[in-house]
Task: inverse folding
């Protein structure tokens, strides 16, 4: 049975619960290696299966990345089957690169720590915000942004399935767009709990600072095809992968299109690794495909029986 693995990105929740055994040797070792590299104890923020993002700040992306890689390593220890495709939403693309043996976890941590620092540097100069709009098509949202003449100050950051669209940019202007979207039929909106912006034009100048570090890292050919989320295509050359990672910081994440691409390649099951439970509902509403989140032991064993 052909399957793909999806790595989620940022969550709009301040806390998430994963019913996983974080004392398992594979998961614990992965977290210990990551913590030693970034000189910060990530396991300190996991208690009773709950990951607390409230006080992580500069280590949020490192936590998301490490958690995803740890789950995948645990899954691999139980099932050696290689997925037909991988894809990652925003920060999730770095997890896909690690799990497809393109870069090491430690190199990925170096990149995402820098990536997060660059985001906060921009937000110190200009207050940013990200907010999800549910129930309004991306074309309508883009028209609202254009009508406000906010093209370079507010952008569509992520196009998710089922009209779940994230916008990002200057916080005041984001709120103006949100109010207009609500008047034009948006069902509701969800504000991200981080006062940062990403995947928007205001990040373009600083995004180039990621390139020097990317050039210093060793890249290998992927062992599994990775669908990148800015071009919706599989890349194999280092220069093309690096270009996509840089552009991802200021371009729209085409997540809906990435999922459609994978499904159209005769993939029958999607295994989801990450923190956003909403995503599973989105996929099952828009497709007939089987979606299993690998966020607890029961689901992992359910997936083992299917794959």
Result:
């Amino acid at each position: 049975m052909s399957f793909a693995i999806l790595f989620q990105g940022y969550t709009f929740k301040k806390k998430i619960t994963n019913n996983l055994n974080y004392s398992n040797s594979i998961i614990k070792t992965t977290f210990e290696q990551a913590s030693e590299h970034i000189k910060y104890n990530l396991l300190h923020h996991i208690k009773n299966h709950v990951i607390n993002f409230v006080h992580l700040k500069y280590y949020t992306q490192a936590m998301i990345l490490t958690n995803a890689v740890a789950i995948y390593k645990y899954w691999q220890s139980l099932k050696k089957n290689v997925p037909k495709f991988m894809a990652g939403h925003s920060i999730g693309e770095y997890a896909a690169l690690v799990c497809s043996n393109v870069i090491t976890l430690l190199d990925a941590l170096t990149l995402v720590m820098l990536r997060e620092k660059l985001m906060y540097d921009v937000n110190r100069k200009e207050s940013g915000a990200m907010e999800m709009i549910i129930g309004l098509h991306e074309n309508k949202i883009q028209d609202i942004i254009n009508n406000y003449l906010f093209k370079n100050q507010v952008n569509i950051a992520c196009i998710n399935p089922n009209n779940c669209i994230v916008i990002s940019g200057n916080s005041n202007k984001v709120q103006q767009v949100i109010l207009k979207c609500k008047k034009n039929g948006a069902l509701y909106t969800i504000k991200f709990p981080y006062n940062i912006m990403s995947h928007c034009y205001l990040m373009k100048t600083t995004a180039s600072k990621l390139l020097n570090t990317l050039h210093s890292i060793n890249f290998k050919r992927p062992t599994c095809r990775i669908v990148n989320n800015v071009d919706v295509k599989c890349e194999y050359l280092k220069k093309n992968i690096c270009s996509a990672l840089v552009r991802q910081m200021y371009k729209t994440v085409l997540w809906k299109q990435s999922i459609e691409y994978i499904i159209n390649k005769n993939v029958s099951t999607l295994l989801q690794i990450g923190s956003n439970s909403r995503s599973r509902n989105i996929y099952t509403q828009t497709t007939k495909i089987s979606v299993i989140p690998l966020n607890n032991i029961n689901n992992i064993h359910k997936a083992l029986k299917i794959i």
